[in-house]
Automatic annotation (TrEMBL):
<keyword id="KW-1133">Transmembrane helix</keyword>
<comment type="pathway">
    <text>Glycan metabolism.</text>
</comment>
<dbReference type="GO" id="GO:0016757">
    <property type="term" value="F:glycosyltransferase activity"/>
</dbReference>
<keyword id="KW-0735">Signal-anchor</keyword>
<dbReference type="InterPro" id="IPR019378">
    <property type="entry name" value="GDP-Fuc_O-FucTrfase"/>
</dbReference>
<keyword id="KW-0325">Glycoprotein</keyword>
<protein>
    <recommendedName>
        <fullName>O-fucosyltransferase family protein</fullName>
    </recommendedName>
</protein>
<keyword id="KW-0328">Glycosyltransferase</keyword>
<keyword id="KW-0119">Carbohydrate metabolism</keyword>
<keyword id="KW-0294">Fucose metabolism</keyword>
<dbReference type="GO" id="GO:0016020">
    <property type="term" value="C:membrane"/>
</dbReference>
<dbReference type="Pfam" id="PF10250">
    <property type="entry name" value="O-FucT"/>
</dbReference>
<comment type="similarity">
    <text>Belongs to the glycosyltransferase GT106 family.</text>
</comment>
<keyword id="KW-0808">Transferase</keyword>
<keyword id="KW-0472">Membrane</keyword>
<dbReference type="GO" id="GO:0006004">
    <property type="term" value="P:fucose metabolic process"/>
</dbReference>
<keyword id="KW-0812">Transmembrane</keyword>
Length: 313
């Protein structure tokens, strides 16, 4: 049977046995570009989500430029990652109980300090405040919190709010009733955050989960909009030194900025790990083949850089 008539009739085609992630590399240029057109142009949210998402964006833009901060300091994120930086002993125990309550979660005993030193923990709201200031963001910057409920609620946002008073959440909309239809539907609330994040002047994720990667790639597709990809492994070292009195504030700021000079969403090749494809860079986070005119992308990256990101093992 021909697929096109079915597609024309139903508008959607579901292919069986395609739930596994598609390969990132080694695919024809035509197919890669088709993936981009489907993901970044054809896929749409429901009319209700689109309408409210667009309204949120317009409300924010009316008040000037804004940053979307994907602050992944949420209870489930902390529980399953085992990250307890900034938590009290009671909170750390609560997070551990949550992790043990889910039999399917294999990793039960996690050393938070080890995980954090490897760059595998989201930054805390307090750490995020220091990093944003070091990167030179003005205190009057409008910041949209693109996440669910922050663990510890307003108490944990106090430091960030003191440094950047213009913090906005979707729950602070003029008419809260408009959000009621999405309550208890976390994926739909996340879709609203996604729309705002795509439209923001600057996007900063404090953890590189699936949503952060999709937003990163979509913003690249829209013309390499500024996306600050935090180097958490370097940052935790700098943050710990700074909070212990070294280096000076000026040296700390210089070090943070130098660490992120090339992490602003600029054109770059994906990292390719031939023997460990699950650990290589995600195609949708950096769909470079869709963004350049030449097959080797020399027009974006300059000549001689095409293999610099390949890792064989």
């Amino acid at each position: 049977m021909q697929i096109l008539p079915l597609f024309s009739k139903h508008k959607v085609v579901h292919f069986n046995k395609t739930d596994a992630r598609l390969a990132n590399n080694g695919i024809s240029l035509d197919l890669q570009r088709l993936r981009c057109r489907v993901n970044f142009q054809a896929l749409k949210f429901t009319p209700q989500i689109e309408a409210l998402g667009n309204k949120l964006v317009h409300l924010l833009r009316d008040k000037g430029p804004f940053m979307a901060l994907h602050l992944r300091y949420e209870m489930d994120m902390l529980a399953f990652s085992g990250c307890t930086q900034g938590c009290t002993a009671e909170e750390a125990e609560e997070l551990k109980r949550m992790r043990y309550a889910f039999p399917w979660w294999r990793e039960k005993e996690i050393v938070s300090e080890e995980r954090r030193s490897q760059g595998l923990c989201p930054l805390t709201p307090e750490e995020t405040s220091l990093v944003l200031q070091a990167l030179g963001f003005d205190k009057d910057m409008q910041i949209y919190i693109a996440s669910g409920e922050i663990y510890g609620s307003e108490r944990r946002l106090a430091t960030l709010r003191a440094a950047f008073p213009r913090i906005v959440k979707k729950e602070m909309m003029p008419d809260p009733k408009e959000l009621q239809q999405f309550h208890n539907h976390s994926s739909q609330m996340a879709a609203l955050d996604f729309m705002v994040s795509i439209a923001s002047n600057t996007f900063i994720p404090t953890y590189d989960g699936n949503m952060a990667k999709l937003v990163e790639g979509h913003r690249r597709y829209l013309g390499f909009k500024r996306t600050v990809l935090l180097d958490r492994k370097k940052l935790v070292v700098l943050l710990d030194l700074y909070q212990n009195g070294t280096p000076s504030q000026n040296d700390f700021e210089v070090a943070v900025r130098l660490a992120h000079e090339k992490k602003m969403g600029q054109p770059s090749h994906r990292r390719v790990i031939v023997v460990k494809p699950k650990e290589e860079d995600y195609f949708y986070a950096n769909p470079l083949e869709c963004l350049c005119k030449q097959r080797d992308c020399d027009d974006l990256l300059g000549p001689g850089k095409r293999n610099s990101s390949e890792v064989s093992s």
